[in-house]
Amino acid sequence: MLNSWLFTAFLIAKAFVVPRVAFLTTSVDGQGTLPMGAHLALEEFSRHGAFVTFHDASLLYQPERLQQFQILVMSPLYGYHDQDRLLSLSYLDTVAMTNVVQWVRQGGILVTGGNIGRNTVDGTDRYLSGEILDRQEWPLGRVFGFDMVERNLNGFSLEKDPEAPAPLLEDFPEVLHTLDVEDWYLVPVNEASDVVHLADWVRGDTVWGGILLRRAGQGVAIYLSSFLLLHPSFDGGWADIPAITRFYHSLVQLALGQPRFAVGVNPWPGGARAALCVTLDDGGTPEEYKRTVQSLLQVVPELTFFVTGQLDPEILDYLRKNPRIELGNHSFDHPFFRDLTYAEAVREILMARAIIGPTLGFRFPYVNYTAEGLFALARLGFEYVSTIKVDHLNTFHGALFPYNLVVAPDKGLVVTTDVLELSPVQEDWAFYKRIYEDLYPVEDQQKDQEAFGSYLRTMWEIISDAGGLMITLGHPMYQGHSDAFLKPVLDFLRDVTSQEDVWVTRLDKVNRWWRTLREVRVTLEEKGNTMTFAIHNPWETAVKGVTLWIDVPPDQALPRVTYRKAKGYVTERQEPDKKRVLVILQVPPGWSTVTLKWD
Question: Beta 21-24 vs 52-55: how paired, if at all?
Fold first, then answer.
């Protein structure tokens, strides 16, 4: 039973911080594409302002770097760690595991399981040496509080412990999964007395621990029999999206000390519930450029334009002179980057830079990103890429929030970069590609225009409901071909810009905001009806728009708020089953405090 003493003891020992999260992965393909379960973690953590850094396993050898994070998620599933065994999580040496043990004892929250650290880096199976994975050779057992043996769990069901309270498994069903084929799993033995069972493998009178939690020093270690519990069922996992996101939501609240109201830091400035950027790639006649730019800038305040080094100098000059347009690098000659060597990719990028000038962002031609190209961009100092398209209608491809790219440009080499991926939605070409065909009847044009408008509205509904970032992708030669082809885009943008709680901006400002906010630290202290937030701004100037949110019952009155150093105001957003209180701040350099008191 998860008695209150466990969390009470944990809370007394920890500062309550909006956590930074390290999620270890080498990506699905080594080219920055996230595993689907990692998408869910990114979205839920980002909604709380709990910034995620995706990292390879080399982080485990850097204890000083590891100390920057409060939550560590390590999934040994195939598809999360597919690179060389030196970077795999099932192959860990005692140095890496001992560093994790120390990190947990100093206050970290660890989430992992399965075959984590089962093998040595030379391929030896630690379990086979004595048919037990014990704490002597498997240091992670020292924070989990048990050794491991392997058992065939055919016919077992993973069932929630009836005495284990919410919230970690709150949205999971009572039976999480049932095995109906021969399947071997590591299960705990020789458990410490303070190991807490959240769920167990059960068949008749036989019970093995399945999901376990233990306080270790100042931190908490959570063990999952299989990380399929945090991987979506539509991709072979064991859980649906609400259950997985609730799990990660609960981790953030645990790091914050289990406050009576859920709290977090809004990911967008000024309390905005979502963000929108309009972007364009080059291509078209001078008339199409002017029609597109002039029409869009009548509706949105600014936009981002990715251009190649081959762009007509007069058009480039036209775009460059407009202060509301950010230019991005789109390569020199618009090649397929998969056909380029690393050196050729560098040349393409630098030749375009020589003509366009320095830019923060890059977009790969033909949406054809490569690990070598991403590695080149990281080494050349680019801050963001906008290429990996969002598809949340059919799968989980592309991200609704910025994330840093982890790439594998060569076998055995995995590079964690600080380049952010800002994922666009499907481009206009996918709907308007018949524009340059000889036969394109007017009725077909109208159907395609309606389909494009419907797609934009559907994607906005998905992304704004998630509180994320939507990036449109157009071309003067397609959506700017005529007023009729522009109309669905303009109608969509008018609808969105009429919504007061949406941040409409351009990519360089999203990049700057994300990098600024992720360095701002927020801690929480709660006493009775009072919540006090301490906010540290490490920058030399004030950060405007930092927003705290607190979810309270709809009938709860707004709190009285006092500020020390910071300036701010309180507003609210009514939702179906709760009211979100927003405290929007201007935070000066150094420490500030904000105190909320409910009568």
Answer: parallel
As a whole number of angstroms, the distance between CA 209 and CA 195 comes to: 10
In angstroms, the CA 405 to CA 536 distance is 27
Place of tokens 């524009």: 435
Instruction: State the number of CA atoms in the 13 A half-sphere of 585 facing the CB.
Output: 32
Cis, bond preceding 167 (omega within 30 deg of 0): yes
According to DSSP, the residues that pair with 547 across neighbouring strands are 584
What is the helix (H) or strand (E) element at residue 179, kind and residue range? none
Question: Hey, is 274 helix, strand or coil?
Answer: strand
Helix (H) or strand (E) holding 327: strand 325-329
For the stretch 332-370, pLDDT in tens is: 999 999 999 999 999 999 999 999 999 999 999 998 999
The pLDDT tens digits of the residues spanning 162-216 come to 887 668 999 999 999 999 999 999 999 999 999 999 999 999 999 999 999 999 9
Residue 464 gets which letter from DSSP?
Answer: H
Q: Could you tell me if 72 and 106 are in contact, meaning their C-beta atoms sit under 8 angstroms apart?
A: no
pTM score above 0.85: yes
What DSSP line would sit under 69-121, residue for residue? -SEEEE--STTTS-S-GGG-SSB--HHHHHHHHHHHHTT-EEEEETTTT-B-T
Amino acid (one-letter) located at 593: T
Instruction: Report in angstroms the alpha-carbon separations of 151 from 77, 183, 202, 207, 277.
Output: 19, 8, 13, 11, 52
- Please report the domains of the chain, with CATH numbers, ordered by start residue: 4-264 (3.40.50.880), 271-510 (3.20.20.370), 519-597 (2.60.40)
